[in-house]
Specification:
Number of strands: 0
Mean pLDDT: 91
Largest sheet: none
Distance between the termini: 27 Å
Strand content: under 5%
Low-confidence stretches: none
Radius of gyration: 15 Å
Helix content: 55-70%
Structural class: mainly alpha
Number of domains: 1
Oligomer: single chain
Number of helices: 4
Length: about 70
């Protein structure tokens, strides 16, 4: 997810505009882009929604027997 967000940010026209729209601090977003820090999940959710990044759960087979 982090890499998807970084890719979307790299394609964005203005990091400053994203900060204004999402309420993220430019310093926090800069550290995230540099890979020196992560984002809290609520902030990552807000950023993903703004950038149109979606995640979904993969369907997987549940085995009988609980393992």
């Amino acid at each position: 997810m982090s890499e998807l967000l970084r890719q979307a940010l790299a394609e964005a026209p203005s990091i400053r505009a994203i900060c204004r729209a999402t309420g993220l601090q430019p310093s926090a977003l800069g550290r995230f882009l540099a890979g020196t820090s992560s984002l809290r999940l609520d902030l990552a959710d807000r950023l993903a929604a703004h950038l149109g990044v979606e995640s979904r759960r993969r369907a997987h087979k549940v085995s009988k027997g609980g393992k």
